Amino acid sequence: MTRLIVLLLIVAVNQTRGSCPEYVFKKISFNSRLVLDYLQKYVDLSVKECAERCSEVPNCSSFSYKPETTNNSECYTYNKRIWSGIASTQYDYLSTYWRLADSCPADYIYNRTYNVCYKKYAEQLMAWGDAMDLCEQDGGYLFIGNTMDKLQLLNDYFMSLPPPLITVAHYIGGNDFQQEGIWEWLDGSKTFNWPRSGAEPSGGTSENCTGVKPKESGIISFFDMNCYLMRPFVCEVPLRP
Ligand SMILES: *[C@@H]1O[C@H](CO)[C@@H](O)[C@H](O)[C@H]1NC(C)=O
Ligand SMILES: *[C@@H]1O[C@H](CO)[C@@H](O)[C@H](O)[C@H]1NC(C)=O
Ligand SMILES: *[C@@H]1O[C@H](CO)[C@@H](O)[C@H](O)[C@H]1NC(C)=O
Ligand SMILES: *[C@@H]1O[C@H](CO)[C@@H](O)[C@H](O)[C@H]1NC(C)=O
């Protein structure tokens, strides 16, 4: 039985079962903000114990943790994905962790090179928030395109589809809900590849969600979009390393 603590990752080992399942969590860039509708609050636990509490609940997909300061440590578990842009309040020292899946759902595409698991929903056109809910039901969220590898993957995938399916922008997981003009991915990372020549992002407070289209040559480009347009979208399920 192994017990791993990797940079920014916690592997909690459930020792009560013989089969030795491991639960892996990833720390996201969503700090010092508390989301109020938590499942449970615990005090005086280590971060690993907090991860274990979350592991014990099948639906727990995130937890937030405040280390011991002058007060006891605090652990909050959630039966939903906490994402940057969600309604939250300022709360010092708090960090948030995402539960990672063991495997890619059967109807998703798995890219082994980058360990990325994704699915394009082309038939069910939805508003951004409803698309996000559907991705959550799959155990994930709207695709996070914060690395060149993941953008290349998405671009190649789109280019492999029949042309009519790629002429319209698809929702992915970028937004500026938290602060106008400050674009963030759902995990709070801020690496965006806005096209240099275009005017995007251009919509101000009426366009808070990101969409992507592939380019004939080169890499995919982003658009800010009205979040209530009915659009196709791409989901991602985060996998353990
Ligand atoms: C847990 O997830 C299942 C399947 O998605 C759902 O039916 C159930 O209502 C969820 N339970 C809670 C407490 O959220
Ligand atoms: C410690 O807890 C008290 C009472 O709940 C609270 O007023 C205070 O702000 C807390 N201090 C810190 C550093 O979190
Ligand atoms: C993953 O995606 C990249 C970019 O599209 C591609 O070059 C690579 O062959 C893919 N790997 C697998 C195993 O599908
Ligand atoms: C877009 O986000 C800003 C905050 O960045 C908010 O003030 C505005 O109401 C949002 N617009 C819509 C249409 O939800």
TrEMBL record:
KW Ligase (keyword) present: no
Organism superkingdom: Eukaryota
One Gene Ontology MF term: growth factor activity
Keyword Signal appears in the UniProt entry: yes
Segments forming domain C-type lectin: 113-236
Coiled-coil positions: none
Protein name: C-type lectin
Originating organism: Patella caerulea (Rayed Mediterranean limpet)
UniProt lineage: Eukaryota, Metazoa, Spiralia, Lophotrochozoa, Mollusca
